[in-house]
Design brief:
- The protein is of the alpha+beta class.
- The chain folds into three domains: 5-53 and 294-368, Beta Barrel (conserved putative lor/sdh protein from methanococcus maripaludis s2 fold), CATH 2.40.420; 56-67 and 207-289, Efflux pump adaptor protein, beta barrel domain (Elongation Factor Tu (Ef-tu), domain 3, Beta Barrel); 73-190, Helix Hairpins (Orthogonal Bundle).
- Helix content is 25%, strand content 36%.
- The strands form three sheets. Strands 1, 14, 15, 16, 17, 18, 19 and 20 form an eight-stranded mixed beta sheet that branches. Strands 2-9-12-11-10-13 form a six-stranded antiparallel beta barrel.
- A hairpin with a 6-residue loop joins strand 10 and strand 11 (244-252).
- Helix 3 runs antiparallel to helix 4.
Length: 381
Amino acid sequence: MRKPKSITRWLGMAMVGLMAGIMGGCMDSGAHADIPPKAVRPVKAIQLTRIVGDHALVFPATAKSLREVRLSFRVGGPLIGLDAENGQKVVKGQMIARIDPRDFEIAIKTLEAKLAASKAHLEEATLQYHRYAHLFNQNAAAKAKYDNARATFQMAEAQVKADTESLADAKNDLIDTRLIAPFTGYVNDELVENHETVTQGQPIVSLVDLKTIEVVLGLPEDLVGRLSDFNSYRVAFEAVPGSEFAATLKEVGKTPDPTSRAYPLTLILEPAATPLVRPGMAAQVRINVSADAGKDRFAIPVQALFNSGGDTSSVWIFDAQTQTVSRQEVFVERLNRQGVEISGDLAPGQWVVSAGVHHLQPGQRVRLLKKPSPTNVGAMR
């Protein structure tokens, strides 16, 4: 059965080393060279035990805020209040900074006076228009005077509308002299100093939303297709020793990093983590991967594997009744600290030859070497 190329290359180098050692040993020992191919060979073997449960993958990651915005005024002017410091918590609706409102208050008073005058003029124009309309209908006034009164009324009406809109805009400008937090969060950076004159749209502070914290890691491309096997995520932070937080999968990016070729995987931390974690903190994510349904996995030493052609790996199965071995193709699942994990047409309790695999042939009779007794120190093995 075939195995991933990266594991194949690793195992290939390991096999070359093992073969060199074995061949060297054979050349130095005439006893080994004299054993006929079909002679009963002593071998070491291990009994297969099913790997129970899931396994975990660990990745480095970084915390980030769900959103970060740069707040700015919709009007310009001199700052007279900057009530924010780096790291300060602000709540939604809280004033963060303020522009001197005096010019805006003066503009409002001016427009209020102008609107009052426009309304008075409209009132007079309305009376004149109604008067000449009545006279014109009675044939008691010339059409030119009627038309003039109507035009004056329409102009006065338009002026009142324009002054009303200008006053509303001025009042909004006055409201906009106060910079209000759009959500509860933390001030990440002050971008201006108090008493500076700022312009419309100039960033004043950077605000981060820490209600939800995200964690981003790079997922190798060969694992992107196995997301359905990831059944839980746990995140630990160096800055929060002794704590580990649950997380849920948010998304996996569609485009890999051009350098690492890893895809950005984003997790959302549980709410309990938000008071302790800050954007930029280094994290370690442990992903629990479900064992494949219906597929038993077994751990064996790497020297128990041998290449049976191409990228195919095999092991020797020892039959206790016939005292012979048979070749069994296997699939290499992954490397671990003890060796490799394999799967295939195997069963718990079977014996797999763990040493001397390159000297065997199908159907060859073998003899299992027993492990020496702890008290048999220095004895022959």
